[in-house]
Amino acid sequence: MENNSYEKIAKTLRTDRDVLRTVEEKLSGITGKKGVLENIFDSNKKRIEYALDALDFRHENMRAGEIYSSLIDRIREDDIALGKLITSFQNMIDLAKETADVGTGMFLKLDKARELVSLNPPQKILEFLGYSNVQELLEKEDIFEIFAGLRFIEDMEWLNNIFFKPYENLTPDDFEEREIRGHALNEKWIKAAEHFVEKKYHNLSHLKELGFVFIIPVDIKIPGATLNDFSLALHYFHEIKFYSDLFKKFSAEENFARKFTASLRGDVLNNRPPEENMGSTWLIVQRYLAKDDEYDWRLFYPHVNPEAVHWFKAERDIAKFSKKFGLDFSFWQGMGPVGDFFRDDAGIDILVSFNFLDTVMSLFKEKEMIKYLYHHQEALWNKIFSEYFGEEKMEEMLIQNFDKGIIKL
């Protein structure tokens, strides 16, 4: 069984089984826990048996395509059910905020935000809204909406080289404790945001430094859009809370601005640790690297991903939300790291992800025949780490070591 667990998990993660053997050897020595990978393997098997039963699969020769289609149908039904409950864009954000229940955080003071806009006036926003100067813009527009508009109107080069440059001089005194906000933008922004929505395939975004989740009020008439947006909003609320905890930690340390700006950029260490440290050294990969390069070496090296932490919480919230409102989304709870290989019609083993987000995104991109797997794989790396140290301790270690980009055990 042990060899089988190594083989299956390694195959899923696209890494070498000896990497997992080393991980288990090192982490067992540190924690005293034995048989963790075998337990994960067994748990995965049981969760899949539960899922297949819930999807009414009763025969043995199940094909990957059949299972994938059933998962897509299930998420489609859940999306329709949620769509009947949501009454407006603002209602969606309000429900997500209430469900996530993340409280307050440490964010940029609004007067400082206005100062940053005044220092480097966003010319394209001024032109789009028809204002002759930045003072008029600041007097008549909500500062949260101005900052949101920066993300989809101004050039990225201008943002990085000009607007964000003063961030390097920020101090903890420029921040304050306040509520995390979320709302639907004014409809006047829709035209300017069309390219952003088209590129991102969703109409939500967030501002970590302001503690703000926003939705562009434009209908995306694609199956899965409602559930995708709602779950993403939950994810963003948790992500903002996580970054607020980081900002608080940085505020008590030297080089606050450098650490603050690096965290916003999403820097990921690109120096491979010495081989002898394999298993006792874990990378912190704060982005989904597979979106850019599915063969990035860091995907195959032991790592933890805070994005997967936020999604774990969002999936838990979705189950809680569905129970409160008489829906049944409990099927997806705990499915983050779950997946297995099934034969296709040609007899080839195909990895099927039971991960909620992979399934939502696959439905969302169904017409383009794009299937997603990487959320499941990242959740599985997190699962391995958290089974040794616990979920709370894993998040604590992420925050304590975030600016280093690596956890040394």
Compute the number of strand runs.
Answer: 10
- Rg over C-alpha atoms, rounded to the nearest angstrom: 22 Å
Biggest β-sheet: strands ordered side by side in the sheet: 3-5-4
Q: Helical content, roughly? A: 55-70%
Q: Which class do the helix and strand fractions yield?
A: mainly alpha
Count, helices: 17
Biggest beta sheet summary: 3 strands, mixed
Envelope shape:
globular
The run of helices and strands is HHHHHEHHHHHEEHEEHHEEHEEHHHE
The fraction of residues in strands falls at: 5-15%
Low-confidence stretches: none
What gap, in angstroms, lies between the N and C termini? 28 Å
Overall residue-averaged pLDDT value: 93
TL;DR?
The chain has 409 residues and is mainly alpha-helical. It contains 17 helices and ten strands. Helix 4 packs across helix 12 and helix 9 crosses helix 11.
Description of the molecule:
This protein has 409 residues and is mainly alpha-helical. It has a domain at 2-88 and 223-232 and 257-408. 55% of the residues lie in helices and 10% in strands. Helix 1 packs across helix 3, helix 4 crosses helix 12 and helix 12 packs across helix 14 (306-324). The two termini are 28 Å apart.
